[in-house]
Each structure stands twice: as structure tokens, then as C-alpha cells.
Amino acid sequence: MQDRKLPLSTSDFRSGRFDALAIFVRQTWPFSKRPTPEGALDLVAQTFGYSDYLDAARCATERPMPNHSMLINPVSNLTRLLNLPKKDLDMSRFDLGMLAQAFGSDPEVNEFFKSWPMHLISRWNFDNAPCNFQTTFLGELEPAFERAWSNNSKEKQPFATVTKNYTSAASIVPALVGEKTIDELRKLRIIDIIDEQVAEAILQDTMPVLFSEILCVNETSANDLIENTGLSMKDLWSLPRNESGFPNLYQHMRTVLNEVILNRPLMSLYELSRSDDGFYYTPYAIDSSGSKRGEALEEGTFVFDVVRDEIENDVFRTYTWYGQIQNEFGAIMAYVTGTYIAGPAQEDASSMDLISALDEMSDRDVEIIDIVLDSLQHEILENSGDVVNKSDINTRLLFNFGNMITISEWERSENATHGIGITLLNCCIDRLKKSFKRNMHVATIINPYQYKNDSGLFSTVAEQRIVDVKKVVVQLSKLRANSSVLNIYARSQILEDTENTFHKYCGEQVDSFFQ
After folding, report:
1. CB–CB of 340/405 below 8 Å?
2. What is the C-alpha to C-alpha distance for residues 254 and 199, in angstroms, rounded to an integer?
3. Model confidence over 61-88: pLDDT tens digits?
4. HSE-up of 103 (CA within 13 Å, CB side)?
């Protein structure tokens, strides 16, 4: 078994704290044959994973070492110690055989080791000096701070099933602005509505969210923090999570807030900005060489690719497909991607088989197919009067007539001509029909990319979002002219809150536009 050693600092020994821990162990020893002072030092060192006291002192460091983000529990380490071969232990100074016999069966043994004052040792910041991050690291934290201060009205705690509400700028602006049109909002800066005093109050409410991102991390990130600060994770966790514990973190974010964020357009709280290439989310380019060489269109060059997905489902086959239109210089003007689902045409299959197949691919596809199942459930109710659970729907209702495609991402550059997106979609459908020889149903969630989650908190912005959703609906409706399209299933989802794969349908929704 590989040794796991509790990291120790040279200060643990210089200050006498390690000795104090050994004295505590000897004085509170609940068994016969009390260890000698030297034996108590060795016992403590061995319980922490070292061969003896001298080995522990020799391994102590001036700064915390990597891979020591967690405090090793002396009780679990004692288990390791008692399982070592007896030849590796010095049994002369204390009766480890007696401990081994009692450990696990005598609660007094467990309580004894749990009572050790572990706060005394494994500390590089015993006096709780404040933490000061390096400037580069503070810059890396700016996006997380901006995101939390500006929007994201729910904080998701790691490994928790509940969310904690806090005040963000986006959630407070509607009460401060009052009734204004979208054009009036576009002329305002954040500081026109939120003054520095209110901004500071939001900062104080936001910082705990930032601390959760900084301190609740994996081992790699923990090692980065150790290297950056010179403090162990135990040190960082023990500091007060306020300005006294992290002064330059507060100072830096306050400067970013007052000099940068407050001077941004007010609508930046609710809308994304396009990148330099004209997209909200930059796509990767499909290689147009070889078998994927382009097809000339009036709008540019159409490039297409389809890849079989490796899923374990025996009932359905899925394929990921990609389409792009590129200009003469190879720059992407529009892109779309989704899943092609091939199902049994003449055999019965459960909708849960379909969900399971898509769950291997992405939660997004599961959300989209849930819209389809809603529509089928409604169709069965209208035709027969029966209320059928979505999980019991026979997918032959769909696949007897054709296969299914989902649209998961679909965007055009602002540098491209209007209508290029629907041209691209039709080209992709035609290519899929040519490859698979079947007509298809089309399903998607309409989610205009420019809107952030908190756009639903402001009625004026939410109304504008619905207007933009309907523009997308008008474009999607043009697919009905494509002879390969059987049905179109679409729904807008304003807010998304991802609890798990099957329970992601939260927030205000627009009714289905296609029945």
C-alpha cells in the first residue's frame, strides 16, 4: 500500500506544536502501557504516515507541497499503520498489537484518535495572516466575478441539491429602472441605474459565490492555489471569507467593478456580444478537403459531415451531423449541428429506449425529444382520449414514417446575409435524405443565443426575446416546403436550470409554435 503522508511544515516543529500534540496523546492515553515521551512522538509520526519522528521532521517543508489539498484523517491512517507488516514497526515503545485488537471494536479507541487537536499541525499560516493572490491569478478570476455580480441569480453549490438565491445586478435592475422600452434601455450604462453604493452592496452579496468557485476545487486547481498563495488548502479554508481574510481579492474586484463593469451598456447584463467573427459562439471549422469538399451555393460553399455515434443502445442508431456555409476565403458564415436518429420502422419500441440512446450523447437531445414526446402525448389524448405516460409512448408513431433529426446549435454570422441559416438547414436535410433514404421529423429548442439566463427577470427584455424567438419560428416554418420534412417540433425555453437529465424543464416557456 502506498503511504499517504500528512504534509507537515517546519513551523510545526520549530514552534513546538508537534511536541504539544505528542504530549496530549501521552497524557490522554486511555490504555495500559502508556508510551514514553519519545514513543508518543514516534506514534504520532507513524499515524501520519512517516516511519518515525525523525522521518517526519526531515520531510517537513517551508511551503506546502502539491497534492496535499486534503487533511489526512489520523483514524484512517491508523488503519493503514496497523495493517503494515510487524517487521516495519518498532513495537518496543508502545503496544500496537493491543491497539490493533481494540481498533474497530472498541469505540473508546476511535474516539481517542478523533480527539487529537489536529488544528495544531499541518499549518503554514498558523497566525491566520490574510491571503494575497498573485496579480495574474486575480485576472483569471475576473470572468467568474463578473458573471456572478452581473447575473446568474442562482448559486449552484457543489454536490448540493439546493440552490441559494443571492442579489445580482440583473435581478435588481428591473426594480430600479421602472417602465422603459428596449430602445431606451439600449442607451443606458449600468452606472446610470446602479450607483457605486448599490454596486458595493451587490459585490458583498456576490463574493461568497466567488469563494465557492475558488475554494471548492479539484486537486489540480488546489495545487495551483497552493503554489499561488504559499498556503495549504487547510489554511485557505480556515481564513474568514471576507475582506480581512482576502484583502487584495476584494480590492481587485472592486477596481474591476468601478472602472470596467459599471461603464458597460446596461443591456450587457441580459445580452451577449458577438465575437469578432460575427458569432455569439464561435464554431470549429469543418475541413472542406477530401470527402467533405464543398458544394457551391449562391451564398458560399456548403460543407457537410456526418459521424456515427458509438452508443450501446441496440434499438436506435444515432449520428452527429454538421453543416456550414463558408465564404471564398474559408470564413464560416453560418453553422448548424445536431443528431440524426434512426429508429425501427415496423417494430415497437419504448420512448424510454429513445431517451436512453440520446442520454448517452447529450442532455440537450434529451430536452429536445421531451418536446416531441409532449406533442405525441397530446396527439394521443386528442385522437383517443387516453392519457399515456410519456415513458409508455410507442416510438413507432414517429419512426414508422421517417427518422428524426435534432438541431442542437444553429447560428449565422452577423456578416452573412439574412436567410442563409434556413438555406444551410435545407442543404443538410437534403444531404441526410440522400444518405439515409428516409424522410424525417425535425425537432429543436429555440433559444436565441444573445440572451443570458437572467433575461427572463426583466419583462421588457423577456418580451423582446419572445419577438426574436418568433423571428426564428418564421424561418423554421420555411422547412415545411422541403418535401423530406414530415413534422417540425419546436419550443422556446427562456430559463434553463439543470438538475439532472430528466428534470431540466424549469422557467417560463413559450407555447409550442407547431402542432
Report:
1. yes
2. 9
3. 998 887 654 555 555 555 555 555 544 4
4. 19
pLDDT in tens, 341-370: 999 877 888 888 888 888 888 888 888 999
| Cβ density class 408-442: b for 16+ within 10 Å, e for less | bebbbbeebeeebbbbbbbbbbbbbbeebebbbbb
- Would you place residue 103 in the very low, low, confident or very high pLDDT band (cuts 50, 70, 90)? very low
Residue 505 CB burial class (10 angstroms; 0-12, 13-18, ≥19): middle
Task: Band the pLDDT of 456: cuts 50, 70, 90.
Answer: confident
**What are 66's three cell numbers?**
502539491
Taking the C-alpha atoms of residue 130 and residue 37, their distance in angstroms, rounded to an integer, is: 36
Q: What is the pLDDT of residues 46-66, one digit of tens each?
A: 888 788 999 999 999 998 887
Confirm if 514 and 488 have CB atoms less than 8 A apart.
yes
Burial (CB < 10 A; 0-12, 13-18, 19+), residue 175, is exposed
Cell of 399: 419512426
- What is the distance between the alpha carbons of residues 96 and 86, in angstroms, rounded to a whole number? 9
Dihedral-angle region of residue 66 (phi above 0 means left; psi in -120 to 50 means alpha; beta otherwise): beta
